[in-house]
Design brief:
The structure is a single chain. The protein is of the alpha+beta class and 340 residues long. It folds into 2 domains: 132 residues, PurM-like, N-terminal domain (60s Ribosomal Protein L30, Chain: A), CATH 3.30.1330; 184 residues, PurM-like C-terminal domain (Phosphoribosyl-aminoimidazole Synthetase, Chain A, domain 2), CATH 3.90.650. The protein has a 7-stranded mixed sheet with strand order 8-10-7-11-9-12-13. A 6-stranded mixed sheet has the order 1-2-3-6-4-5, covered by helices on one side. The two termini are 29 Å apart. The relative contact order is 0.17.
Length: 340
Amino acid sequence: MRENSGERLGIGKLSIKDLLPLLSQVRPVRRSETYQGPYPGEDAAIIRLPCCDLALHTDPITEAETEIGWLSIHVAANDVATTGACPAWASVTVLAPEGSTMGLLAEVIIGIRRAAEELGIDIVGGHTEVSPGLAKHVVVATVMGITCPGCALRTGDARPGDIVIYAGYAGAEGTGILARDFRSRLERCGLGEEVIAEALRIGASISIVRPACALARSGLARSMHDATEGGALGALVELALASGYTVVVEPDRIPVHPATRALSECLGIDPLRLIGSGSFVAVVPQGKEVEALKLLDSLGMPASVVGHIRQGGPRVELPGGERIYEPPRDEISRVWESDG
């Protein structure tokens, strides 16, 4: 653990080697109702109550400047939906930098309300303040949902022999953020209005609540995991970490929208390592993949079989023998840094 060292931490999620010692300080479970506590790769906490399974997740929005209120609800709701619970309530903290205005705060709050209305979520609490030392607004949302007793899914429930499906376009959220917050840079790169408009459209379609809940209700999903920081590859590595098994992946099968490829080529980034809300990993028993793909297609979500689970240490194995043991650093962090 390097908490007392002088080594500076990079932007983005902590690495697993830095995170695990911190989690060890809070992980002991003392209540029998706690079914899933904090662990790498698990999207949400699961509390098993006599009447239902309660799933809840907290996520900050720190690497976007516009639509952060709207993003906060959708991103946290996605993580709850991957447990099969229906997102229903949210508590939101909004931290504004010194010099902010009521108009800017109102924009954030309106975005929160709009997302909540889209998903049928009640905002039941939160906190708002102007905080010293912030460069921009930060929004932290906690979303909660319920499903039937004993029904909630964990990322770690994947088993050897299971089939891995990637649903949605990789890097969807990041595509929208780049198109909004780095538009001038993209235009200097030569990207036209049509491509940028398409990128904005993709970034406005980041909810996986409907398809994830449909897979859970169908009984097809053994495990699901939302793609957030670290993108598609990050989600697959976190699946491996949570399950304790090897995830064999063919990355060329992961759906990537042409607009995302265009932005990625312009900025010199990997779309499979780009923050990916709007897409998720679904693990289904062997023989159920065709049925799952048909269900996703009926909901208008692109999806493809991208690999399988096998015995072995927790890692992602790519063609050619490449192995990935930790979620990669998100490409959007590199773009922010290169932009100064």
